[in-house]
Design brief:
mainly alpha
Amino acid sequence: MNRILQLDFFRGLFLIIITTNHFLSRENVIYRFTYEFIGWITAAEGFVFLSGLTAGIVYSRKLVEEGEDFITWAAKKRAFTIYKYHLMVFLLIILIFYSHSLMEEYWYYNYTDFKLLFQKPFYSVLLSSLLLYQPIYMDILPMYAIFLLLLPMALKSFKNGRPGMVLTLSFLLYLLGTLDQGFNLFPRFHFMEKVDTGFFNLLSWQLLFVGGVYLGYLTYQNKTSHLLQNKKLFYSAAIICTLLFFFRNAGYLYESLELSSEYWVSKENLGPLRLLNFTALLIVLSYLASRFKQWFSFKPICYLGKYSLEVFSFHILLIVIFRPLKVLIRDIYSIKIMDGLYFNPVPTFMLFFILIPALFLAPGFKNYFLLFKQRLRTNS
């Protein structure tokens, strides 16, 4: 099965948006258009879903060609690779933090997530290696690794004609997650009070990954064309997207309707309204991408999506390095747009001419490292 460029395109696009949102301040006017502008949805939802969709396509092929035992081994191997990236990034973050007092001052005093790292670095490394300490930016990779370990079980059930069972169980876990249960147990035990399993509630967010895996399974079997070309479904989803865009950007309206409740739009627990918003946008974009493939095949962005693991990991290091520098230069010159909204030229320049171009270096670093390992083996 040929590589689907549209999947790479959207993954690359989401990586650029994630980098933008992690770097720019909330008062920057660009951030206003990249974070929840089109509704209660961010690039994170799309990134997790596409990870499941891509895995569903790839491992469905492996299931047919290599068998069940192989995909179990392959999924574990991939999960371990992601785990190694997680640890490598965490260790590099420690080196960056201790490289200059500016880094320590900024990350210690502005982000409580990292205080344990500064106070007890060796203990934090131990917890991180057990996936029990996931400060800001460090929770996506562990989540992906855990989901991959469950992937073979889901695919085997799909193959054996039990997709309904898997999807029902996934949805029930999602409902439990939206009630914010199951992942707030650790603080009740004194010896686990330092545990931080990350921002994202795995019980809720697994639904996006499992849904992506199932659609990937159907895509491999060429059973999604009727969904992608369904005009009634597209127009219905477009109407929902339009309405949610309207309510999201007219705050006084949805507040009067009590839709601002954390339960409905929670990002942490993937609230029902957020899930609806994502599903509707997914249908719209899938329809457009199937009809106008050339719109979603820009090679540089596809390149980032192809190496999403390397690019995502590298973007964390870039954010850790450049956010403290941004604070120093942010107020050199700024243009007030309206109350609480500014255009900051220097940080914006850094984003578009340093950080985003730097993302394209990540695959090269990986290839250089592999070449270095090969030379060491040859010499030994």
